[in-house]
Design brief:
Elements: H1 2-10, H2 15-27, E1 30-31, H3 32-39, H4 43-56, E2 59-61, E3 68-71, H5 74-95, E4 106-110, H6 112-125, E5 129-135, H7 136-151, E6 155-161, E7 185-191, E8 195-202, E9 205-212, H8 215-246, H9 251-258
Parallel strand pairs: 5-6
Antiparallel strand pairs: 1-3, 2-3, 4-9, 5-7, 7-8, 8-9
Helix pairs in contact: 1-2, 3-4, 6-7
Length: 265
């Protein structure tokens, strides 16, 4: 009973309206006096509420003295409410004032729940393409959302490190050195080449992510992803030659650019 009253109030009925409708549904039909007696409330409150519900179309009133009220069948009531809500939602959508779009902003999200709820919402809205650069642990958490997107015809581009995944072997370019104290796994996603998330997650750090639609950041992540996979393809074709010239995993070459700066810089 409490749950039913709760949901009726959630649909916009007052507590008195909800109790009267449930009572009438239980009795079949009743006069205002009978309803007031059953609920233990004043007749004046009951009569005004009955008239209001009748005017809104949720009650029927029989002719005669005393007048008896009955509530619509559940399927009739829910159909009426659904139609009214749909009409209101369509009107709000078409009539709500709109302002000029704001300039792209950057914002931070913290915590596993917040990060993955934000991601799930965006992945569910993807229409054309999703670019994913993650570790195996995060790939497993996103698998259902990404599978759903792929089932809708969205193009998926994957890079997955850290064990078995959709792409088992890591990209050939060695990772950048770690700056600061975080030891988490970095991940990034770009949706429809307009929205992106870049973050870190792991047992030794709080899950954090930066989200933006700024074209500079989405462009940087897409370029980084493309360069890693191009290098991966090159290594597959020219692995021995590249290793003999630059060293295993290109350590000699990459050290020129990605060496950790000395203290004080």
């Amino acid at each position: 009973m409490d749950q039913l009253l709760h949901h009726l109030r959630h649909l916009g009925f007052t507590e008195m309206e909800s109790k009267i409708m449930v009572e009438l549904a239980r009795q079949g039909s009743a006069s205002g006096y009978e309803v007031a007696k059953r609920l233990g409330v004043s007749r004046s409150n009951v009569y005004s509420t009955l008239q209001r519900l009748e005017q809104r179309g949720f009650l029927r009133c029989s002719a005669g003295e005393p007048a008896k009220y009955s509530v619509l069948k559940p399927e009739e009531m829910t159909s009426m409410i659904s139609g009214q809500m749909r009409t209101s939602l369509e009107y709000v959508q078409s009539s709500m004032p709109q302002h000029e779009p704001e300039k792209p902003v950057f914002y931070n999200i913290e915590g596993d729940k917040n990060v993955f709820e934000n991601l799930s919402r965006e992945l569910a809205e993807a229409k054309h393409e999703i670019v994913v650069d993650v570790w195996r642990e995060e790939a497993e958490l996103l698998r259902a959302d990404l599978q759903g997107a792929e089932d809708r015809g969205v193009r998926l581009l994957w890079s997955c490190d850290g064990g078995e995944g959709i792409m088992d072997q890591p990209a050939p370019w060695p990772g950048l050195p770690s700056y600061g104290t975080g030891n988490g796994r970095k991940f990034s996603l770009v949706v429809d080449r307009r929205w992106c998330m870049l973050g870190m997650r792991g047992e030794s750090c709080v899950t954090q992510a930066m989200v933006t639609e700024h074209p500079v950041m989405t462009g940087l992540l897409l370029n980084h992803f493309a360069q890693e996979l191009v290098l991966y393809e090159l290594e597959q074709d020219m692995g021995e030659e590249l290793e003999s010239r630059y060293g295993h995993r290109y350590q000699n070459l990459s050290a020129r650019y990605w060496s950790v700066p000395s203290e004080g810089i």
